[in-house]
Amino acid sequence: MSNYINNYGCPNGVNGNNTIPRSMSWSPAEPKSRANVVLGAQWGDEGKGKIVDLLASDAQIVCRCQGGNNAGHTVVVESVCYDFHLLPSGLTNTKCTGVVGNGVVINVPQLFDEIKANEAKGLQISSRLLISDRSHIVFDFHQAVDGLQEIEKGSKSLGTTKKGIGPTYACKASRTGLRMADLVGDFAVFEQRFRSLVSTYHKLFPGLEVDLDAELTKYKELATKLRPFVIDTVSYLHEALHQGKNVLVEGANACLLDIDFGTYPFVTSSNCTVGGVCTGLGIPPCAIGHVYGVVKAYTTRVGDGPFPTEQKNEIGERLQTIGGEIGVTTKRKRRCGWLDVVLLRYSNMINGYTALALTKLDILDTFEEIKIGTAYRIGGKVYKYPPASADEMYRAEVDYLVLPGWKKSTSECRKYVDLPVEARRYVETVQELLAIPFKWIGVGKSRAAIITIP
């Protein structure tokens, strides 16, 4: 057996699988396999977890590449509901190894709380989890600062989750943040840098309260717990792909929350688009295979920001109630509206989707008519793609295509031909407008409530 050791003195690591051989053949050739990617195509909460759960049944490695515990994925397996915020939701496949990549920002206590909560439901995780030594740490004071910044903005708040994600990415960009390698390395160096970082924040926010000694004691204990999980995941994934292993990447948040391409400034602080897979895991573009976009059959959004097809009326309330649109992470009601093809065209331009998954089609079962937003009108000009300015998007008037509803239950349908004619017309209309094929259609919460289109 090869002699494996990670950089932090843990021979053989977790199950002997999370470490890298001392001698490794680094080939410039293309990998034998490519990582398949699942991304949210709207503003999040599209049901990515369900599609990941489906694809993870064949995967050997499942990865998170960006975001933090501001994300929320729910997967129902045999009537047991698992909630994931930091961990890859594909871990419901008990044969998978989970990788939390360098692009993820990690609240360490909440990571262990999440592991504990899911293991209490019978899902063994600890022996199958790897964490990048380059991932940044979210501290309690990051969360406190997040809340203070939102209060300062007053009526112009961005509606963040107040999980400390933005301040942590800001530390990363300003090169003052602390990474897993720092925490599990020389703790004296970690302590020095931690004290310096807190001092910087105290100057910016004089009222910020941090018990330095208590925090350092806590993180010294956490470092011991973390050490077996932390490895160089870049070389681990490189080797896995060159060995032909099946790797699945699950994006958090969604395209329209991307720091560059989303409805800025009402966005998250990471790249939720396909480029974030490369930078958040350290894999090259040639190692990416299929890119699947997940689209809810209508549109939802949590928090503030422009939402052209939002229905602030009885229709929006029905979508919210029937769809159970409550945020997994924030517990806030989601804003609801009709499907927006303008945004989806743009989302596809950025991500180049191989195919789409349409989720929650069954939520539209009771509607007399269903609308699809096809273009915006702003100041007399027609837009087929969203403008960069949030102010302009607030002023957008939407051109709608109106289709008849089907007024029949789709929840028991398991083949495409079983869907009502009007439901198929809706699916095919969206497919034609986007010029992207649908591969899956979700018609319910359960694992079985999905139609696969050959």
Automatic annotation (TrEMBL):
GO terms for biological process: 'de novo' AMP biosynthetic process; IMP metabolic process. GO terms for cellular component: cytoplasm. It is found in: Cytoplasm. The keyword Repressor does not apply. Pathway: Purine metabolism; AMP biosynthesis via de novo pathway; AMP from IMP: step 1/2. GO terms for molecular function: adenylosuccinate synthase activity; GTP binding; magnesium ion binding. Keywords: Cytoplasm, GTP-binding, Ligase, Magnesium, Metal-binding, Nucleotide-binding, Purine biosynthesis. It holds the Pfam family Adenylsucc_synt. The keyword Cell cycle does not apply. The active site is at residues 45, 73, 172. Mg(2+) binds at residues 45, 72. GTP binds at residues 44-50, 72-74, 334, 360-362, 442-444. Its EC number is 6.3.4.4. Binds 1 Mg(2+) ion per subunit. CDD domains: AdSS (cd03108). Plays an important role in the de novo pathway and in the salvage pathway of purine nucleotide biosynthesis. Catalyzes the first commited step in the biosynthesis of AMP from IMP. Plays an important role in the de novo pathway of purine nucleotide biosynthesis. This is Adenylosuccinate synthetase.
